[in-house]
Each structure stands twice: as structure tokens, then as C-alpha cells.
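Thanks for the sequence, V.! I ran Glutamate--tRNA ligase right away. Repeating your input here for the record:
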Amino acid sequence: MPDQVVTRFAPSPTGFLHIGGARTALFNWLYARGRGGKFLLRIEDTDRERSTPEATAAILQGMGWLGLDHDGEVISQFERAPRHAEVARQLLDEGKAYKCFSTQEEIAAFREEARAAGRSTLFRSPWRDADPASHPDAPHVIRIKAPIEGETVIRDQVQGDVRIRNDQLDDMILLRSDGTPVYMLAVVVDDHDMGVTHVIRGDDHLNNAARQMLIYNAMGWEVPVWAHIPLIHGPDGKKLSKRHGALGAQEYQAMGYPAAGMRNYLARLGWSHGDDEFFTDAQAQEWFDLDGIGRSPARFDLKKLENLCGQHIAVSDDAALRHEIGAYCAAAGLPALTSRQGDDLERAMYCLKDRARTFPELLEKAHFVLTERPIEPDDKAAKALASVSDGILGELTPQLQTASWTRQDLEETLNAFAEAKDTKFGKLAGPLRAALAGRAVTPSVFDMMLVLGREESLARLAEAAGRPVS
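Predicted structure:
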């Protein structure tokens, strides 16, 4: 292994941060961070027609939400075009590349003729070994001289050794006729200049590795460690697409999934460490290795994501949860929590986070502490209130006024009251939930009363009983 591991994530800024791209970024981040290495970010913005600043911003925002911090400045591939062209011309000067004057029409005619004759349509330029003295003064591309015999072996850490016969590789174009570099050249030069030691990317790039190795070998550069990971499929086994639901990382933030749960789930999507399902970032960085990546496509399962997110919410620090919920509200276009609401939410977190799988679920449970009087009951809560007489809630209030407002005392007071009314506490719980929260599904009555405090709890009960609030 090199002295320092250097990985990179190199998205094209033509849209949001796709969930597959997010996983690729995560794998690179985990591999570098777990080895004290560097994780670099390069924006492959050479397609000027499709690349937009908005897409770049969306990618950076998605990575920011996921907590995938990168080292150094963001590299723009487009801005490095002069360096890419310099390498192509160096190969030309060294006789490892050549000028090709064949026109698009000539190449198309060659392929049509080859198809008709049943021959390979792989274009072999007649200019490969032409004497430079015979070169016309005409537009040309620069092509690399690919080896014609033998084979190229991609030693891949996930796919194993992949062998490609060299007679299947064409003399790839390096510089177009307008002097602009092609993507394949740019990637190799950038990875070399950035010191990238490990290229971890989707297996749709596997064939590209063979062509990129032509440049590495021609320049005498060390080939990086390859790791081509299978793509993500939907639950139906087909390539993940919009028909399966949300695709962008930011969409999942706006739906209220915690970043830690998303990282955990994406790490398990195609990689495993024994039977471990739930783990922390520190464990993921310690455990993650390339030999744990499977060769089969992973299937995206929303229920597994929700399950893991629920586990992460349950163990999260209360202040950190409050902060992330604030970011969720902004992403989802919801009103920001007031300072008081934030304080109350954090104070109530102990009775909110155990069974919430997403932030909308948690905020629904937190309705009792985020709302203010007068409490507007929803339909189910209104029915629960209608099931008891106003008098019962009215009778309960004075008894609670003398309670010491500890959980034990509240439980004893309410159970004794239910017994005196010849009923069980469970029968009182529904109306109490409705009075305190205006909802039928809430944290326990005792937790709500402890969080709200004596004065607010009694005021809500009195209000529900139709009595004036003192």
C-alpha cells in the first residue's frame, strides 16, 4: 500500500447528487478516513452544455448533509484543460500518439463497409504509422497508439482480474480536432496529478479502466488500485430510477431521514462486515475495506433504511438531533422552530426519539410540546374527549394540583383517581392525551405532564374540561 491513501469522488455537475453517487462518495470517504488518508473532490465539468453551477451547488449540499467532508479545494476538471492537452502533446512528441486526419465521413464509411463484410468495426487509422512529412495541412485529432498484441489486465479489488484483448482496444482519441481534451484523458491526468492511489467507482466504468490504462502505461505512471462497485438496483431488481422513488440525496434529507442513518444504510448497500447491520461512523471507518464489497448489485430497500434511521435517532445526542431537525425543516420548506420550541423539543427528546424512524414522525410525537393553547384536537382526539364527561377532567385537576409532579407521584395520583371512578387508567389515558396534546398518538401521559410542567398541564386539562384557565 502507498505511504498515504488518496481517494476521490468525481461527479459530473449535471443534476443532483444521485443516491448511487452518494454511496460512491461514502465508500471513498470511508476508505480514506479509515486509513488516515485524503479524500478529494473533483467536479468533472468538461461537458459545458450540461454542467451548471446549480448542480455543483446541489452536489456540495448533498455531501454536506451526509457529512462527507473532503480535503483541499474542489478541483474543476474544465479549468485543467491546458494540462490535459499538454500530456497529449507530450505523448505525440514521444511517438506514443499520432495525428489522425481521417474525417468522420471516412470513419463512418469504413464501419459500414466492415459491417457489411462481417469484419470488426474497430477503426484502425491509416495515419498511425504515416510519415509526418506526408501530413496534410488539415484538421486532425490526436490518437494514442494502443498495443495491438497481447492483453490488458485490470486487477480489480472487487471484480477480480478482468482481461481484455488488446486487439479489442482502438487508438483512443486524446485531443479533438478543436484541441479540447476528451474525458478519458482528463480523468487519468487529474487522478495522477492529484496523487489518487485508489479509484473506487461504479462498475459501469470498468471498461474505461482498460482504456485509461493505455495512458498510464504510455506516460510511465503508476496505475491506481481499481475497485469497481456494482450499481444499485430497485426492489424489483432493475436499475434504480425515478420509478422507484426519490433519487437525490437532498430529497432524503427533505423527507426527514437522519444523515447518520443514511450513511449507515448506504455503507451496507453492497458492502458488509459480518452480520453487522447497525454501526457508528467510527466503526464504519475502522471496518470498511474493499474485500467486503460484493459483486452483485445491491437492492435499495426503504424499510431497511427507515429501520436503521430509527435506531440512529434513538441513540443520537439530543442537542445534535435538535440541530439536524432545524436543517430538516429548512430543507423541507417548513417553518423554522422558534428558540423556545427548540429548547422545549430538546428537553422532551428523551420521550420522543425511541420509536421515531424519521424526523416527521418525531415532530408529530412532539406536537404536544411545540403547540400552544388553545389546543385544537384532531378528529381522533376529539372523539376521545367526547368519550368522557367534562366533569371527570374537571375533578382530576384539583387532585393534580397537590401532586409533587414526579413521575411516581403522578402515576399514583392518576391510578388512584381511576380506581375511585371504578375504571382503569387506560380508559383515562385517551382523553388525557387529547387534552394535553390534541392527538390520539403521543408519548406517555406522564412524560408529557413532566415535560409540560404543572402549570401548563393543569391549564390544558382545565381548558379541555371547559373551565376558565386561571
